[in-house]
Amino acid sequence: MRVFVTGASGWIGSAIVDELMTAGHEAVGLARSERSARSLAAKGAGVLRGDLDDLGSLRRGAADADAVVHMANKHDWGNPAESDRAERAAVETLATALVGTDRPFVVAAPLSGLVEGRPAVESDVSPAVGPDSNRGGSENLALDHVDQGVRTIVSRFAPSVHGAGDWGFVNFLVGAARKQGVSGYIGDGSATWSAVHRSDAARLIRLGLERAPAGTRLHVTAEEAITTKAIAEAIGRYLDIPVVSIDPEDADAHFGFVGSFFAKTMTASSEITRSTLSWTPTGPTLAEDIETGAYATA
Q1: Residue 264's CATH number
Q2: DSSP label at 10?
């Protein structure tokens, strides 16, 4: 298949491009910079210049492809409304280009905000509906196109997609621990996160693209629930520094913007996902990655 990938030079997207090409697919990545374009071309992927606001490029990329994987997001923490607007417009554009084709459309989505008090399961419907909701309601918007001949596959990602070079949440936690001289967790540290290794995530996206039926929700999680205290303890062991509780009121000052996320429970089961696609994670755990130096440059 010729697969158009947005976010193709990002942390997860670049691994997906590699996975697709290793499996014999042709990957074409959206590149907003010359550096991204060179990186894609160097590995033998096709390049389409543009960004999330260039709806014409998105439309062309989808129309010329046999499948679309949408991973890009502005992640503008200072202006989330702008991120939500751009995400909704991009999903609407990509989905419309695929109407009536039955081609796969894989859409990245977060686990946060789905349910409270238990791990989310694949049958849980996202409460985010409409342009003013989280990520512009893009998950439900994409699924609305199933009845219009689009093979939408929603991929809900764990808050930590880890591995050497990860610049996500855990990277900032390790950076905060270095700066503060202690590895902190918030309150009693009982909040929990799911996690998945980057290689396992990329393989699951490729399997979903190849096999998942229209309307499938995949949970990209290997470890279902790791306490935030356990994450802090792994960081403490790696850096050989004390592990301490941080008062919730001091979380932002201690951790920076990631503090609000570290206080949340964001977990999900992937039991149905594993059964549906015969997916078995094989990568290292989050603690193993931390303790073997995956975040050495954090």
Answers
A1: 3.90.25
A2: S
